[in-house]
Amino acid sequence: MLNLGVLSFLISLTVIFISQRYFIKKNIFDTVNYRSSHDALATRNGGLSVFTTIVIITLYLYYNSNELFDFSLIIPLSILFTIGLYDDIYQVDFKLKFIFQIIIAKILIDQGILIENLNGFFGLYEIPYMISQLLSIFLIVLIINAVNFSDG
User: Fold this and answer.
1) pTM (2 decimals)?
2) DSSP codes of every residue in 74-133
3) What sign results for the dihedral spanned by CA atoms 13, 76, 37, 30?
4) Is 33 helix (H, G, I), strand (E, B) or coil?
5) Cα–Cα distance measured from residue 152 to residue 146, given in angstroms and rounded to the nearest whole number
6) Contact between residue 47 and residue 56 where contact means Cβ atoms under 8 Å apart
7) What is the pLDDT of residues 6-21, one digit of tens each?
8) Contacts from 89-92 at CB under 8 Å and sequence distance 24+?
9) Residue 42 phi, psi (nearest 5)
């Protein structure tokens, strides 16, 4: 059996190679602007290899009854990936992306990813459930957008 690191690397390289050729053939390139993390022409397929590798390795671990993490995270990640890929190809309106980010945040909250206690931050400890949900949605959407903004 291959080491998971080696397997992940090989899957990622394969997906990058195939998707790079497809994106070049379809002329799907990222325009260079002041927020870009690159100086030259680049395809918009970076997240594709990461997501595909995560899904394949997750399915492998699931079928081998090995639980390294909560498999239910794949659903919101899939939605986020789909919207991101669609945006890379067709330029989705920011309002639609924002609505989907809120939906994804709510799915994560329903799965138990919730800030219920601030542990004395601003003198607050336990917070009411409704405020906890709103704060969690705000922070999840903030993190998603911070990563997207830093990536260009």
Assistant:
1) 0.76
2) HHHHHHHHHHHHHHHHH---HHHHHHHHHHHHHHHHHTT----B-TTGGG--B--HHHHH
3) positive
4) coil
5) 10
6) no
7) 988 999 999 989 988 8
8) 89/28, 89/44
9) -140, 145
